[in-house]
Amino acid sequence: MQITPPFGRLITAMVTPFTKSGDIDWSGVEKIASHLVSIGHDGIAVNGTTGEAPTTSDEEKDQIVKVVRKVVGDKIKIIAGAGNNETSHSVEQAKRAAKAGADGLLVVTPYYNKPPQAGIEAHFKAMADATDIPVMMYDIPGRTGVEIESDTIVKLTEHKNIVALKDAKGNPAATSWVIKRSGVAVYSGDDILNLPLLSVGAVGFVSVCGHTVGGQLRAMLDSWFTGDSNKALEIHQQLLPVFTGTFRTQGAILTKAALNLMGLPGGFTRLPLVDATDAQIAQLKVDLQAGGVKLK
């Protein structure tokens, strides 16, 4: 089964760098977007979990899309997070993201409410009907409290605008069946499962570690899709310390710390996230260097 990747293969969910006072560091946004382009990305996902979207205003989200577009031009896809736990506001966010210039929408399962599958299905259909740009569903039950069940995913992929799934469910068996039944383009949303999900038919990654090891992830993808599975496995094993180390606490916290260690403007977090401690940064250095990341 050959599934076309609608947004390319390598996408990173970009952080939103803040100043110590809590403002968005717009120069930092530009520099990180430029960094991601330089290491081989096909797409950048903004206003997602790693972008601390629950803490940014609708106006800030619009501007992030516009600033990243200014940097990447038309060659790199921009997928904008649009969605929260209330459907009418999510639809408004979707329309705003499309107007700001996004190429696609990343739509998370409504969180906290724990809606039944009928509610989840209706929510995604409302989002897909809101604009003409394609939608990537985002299944991450560890954060939302409820999964998108396989039958629901298969039904939703019948919608013309729902073209992909970011899979952070941690259940490759279920994902295998979804791919077989629907042919949907699945992107791994959990870096340590990138290679396992490729093996069951995923088309690419929506990564967090792409900030630090995007070049190696590009090489893993290229190796896999040219038939060199041994090389892909070698890269996967080399990057295990980075995959584990980035998520010793919340991923945006340590990704920002990692970017700072690399001489890039990771900046600070906004509450309720807090910046990495000295001890966490010391361990992060060990993890990154074990995975081959060069630090300043």
Describe the protein.
The protein is α/β, with parallel strands linked by helices and 296 residues long. The protein has a single domain, classed as Alpha-Beta Barrel (TIM Barrel), CATH 3.20.20. It has twelve helices and eight strands. An eight-stranded parallel beta barrel has the order 1-2-3-4-5-6-7-8, surrounded by five helices.
Task: Provide the fold topology.
Blueprint: E1 10-13, H1 26-38, E2 43-46, H2 58-72, E3 77-81, H3 87-100, E4 104-108, H4 117-130, E5 135-139, H5 141-144, H6 150-156, E6 162-167, H7 172-182, E7 185-188, H8 194-199, E8 204-207, H9 210-225, H10 229-245, H11 251-261, H12 278-290
Parallel strand pairs: 1-2, 1-8, 2-3, 3-4, 4-5, 5-6, 6-7, 7-8
Helix pairs in contact: 1-2, 2-3, 3-4, 4-6, 6-7, 9-10, 10-12, 11-12
Can I get a quick summary?
The protein has one domain: TIM Barrel, CATH 3.20.20.70. The protein contains twelve helices and eight strands.
